[in-house]
Amino acid sequence: MPNPTAAMLVIGDEILSGRTRDANMHYLAGQLTAHGIDLREVRVVPDQPAAIIGAVQALAAGFEWVFTSGGIGPTHDDITADCIARAFDVPINVRDDARQALERHYQTSGTVMNEARLRMARIPDGATLIDNPVSGAPGFSLGNVHVMAGVPAIFQAMVQSVLAQMDGGMPLTSQTLTIDRGEGDIAAALGRLAQEHPDLSFGSYPFQTTDGHFGTNVVIRGADPGQVAAAKTLLAGLVSE
Amino acid sequence: MPNPTAAMLVIGDEILSGRTRDANMHYLAGQLTAHGIDLREVRVVPDQPAAIIGAVQALAAGFEWVFTSGGIGPTHDDITADCIARAFDVPINVRDDARQALERHYQTSGTVMNEARLRMARIPDGATLIDNPVSGAPGFSLGNVHVMAGVPAIFQAMVQSVLAQMDGGMPLTSQTLTIDRGEGDIAAALGRLAQEHPDLSFGSYPFQTTDGHFGTNVVIRGADPGQVAAAKTLLAGLVSE
After folding, report:
1. Coil, helix or strand at residue A188
2. Fold exhibited by the domain A5-163
3. What is the ipTM of this complex?
4. How much is the pTM?
5. CB count, 10 Å around CB of A240?
6. Residue extents of the structural domains in chain A
7. More confident residue, A214 or A154
8. Are B44 and A45 inside 8 Å of each other by CB?
9. Using the beta-carbon criterion (under 8 Å), do A22 and B17 form an inter-chain contact?
10. What distance lies between CA B125 and its chain's CA centroid?
11. Under a CB-based contact definition with an 8 Å cutoff, are residues B232 and B224 in contact?
């Protein structure tokens, strides 16, 4: 059975303007791979309803799971929850369990509930809450979409609680062979090896050392660790000839 | 006149598997903002023809400019140039000027031309070359799509040579006010200020200090530096009350 597929939607003007360097994509990619879920696409869109709604609908239709990051705080530019409700055409209102989660956290931390913070208890009808151990305001899952905060510490905690409840697939094993030659020198041998091993994937990643010399990392991935190791040995022999 | 719009397409299994943390998106975002070009969407797709062709066509139709990163090397997984040719429905062949650019570089660096490296001189019909001062193999521009390498040093050099020839818009000024209070405390005042200043954008970015305390960075952006500065002063007054 093939692994489940997933897509990610990063929501936030700050990423597109270059102000903030996104950290959540790299974190989620690593976690999904370790869990046997294939991340197939990532989109980054601005804080604009049409862009968010369009991307959510396209990704939810195209992949088994969608993970979103960003836009669920208390300020005017936090519009993700409303956009998800519109994408699924369901109502959104303050929900008691979300309000209680916020209030419990605020009692502990000595924060005052107000109208802006209460916005974070607005949850689309039919959604399941995702716990936020850091700042109280919950994420939620609706249909095949998991909606999470953009602050990395909160995003990571939410990913962990979502993944703990998901069925993954077979995690791929990977091994990397670092070759002291440029990609162009090894491309022919690597291409033949890839053709002869349709069950494995061979990724070729050039690097340049500080003295300007080029080398190549070849990453071999597959479900069978023995087959991956054998292919690495074979490649090492081929490129040392 | 509104600023030109742009999208970015990052091509590479290594980003989606979590093996590599993409660096090109953040670099391009900052450069485009400084140049007065609005980056409106980023997509990351795997090394698969259907995914690349579909994304190129969608982004080229939706935005004034598209910048791609990755997949133009000599190995079997470098399929970007072929996919761009198919997306625009034009032939692709080894082109003399591209081959000469490679040969000149290889003569200087003492690298041997071979069949795999010659693949990097395959350029879709009608494209203009983008110089690669690092490793010789050119990028290219076809229609409104600029196709560049994924290795960050090469990507950055190519972005610079593309931007030097593009007309930008009005770069936005931005000022950041760091506020020692959580987003929920300032959301109401900030929301009113945003409504009263439709020409400016107000982004709100929470952060957490190591002692668990929450603060907020508010980034105010606009074309008129005086208006941005005045709004920052106004906001500082409002949140200190």
Report:
1. helix
2. Molybdenum Cofactor Biosythetic Enzyme; Chain A (3.40.980)
3. 0.88
4. 0.89
5. 9
6. 5-163, 173-239
7. A154
8. no
9. no
10. 24
11. no
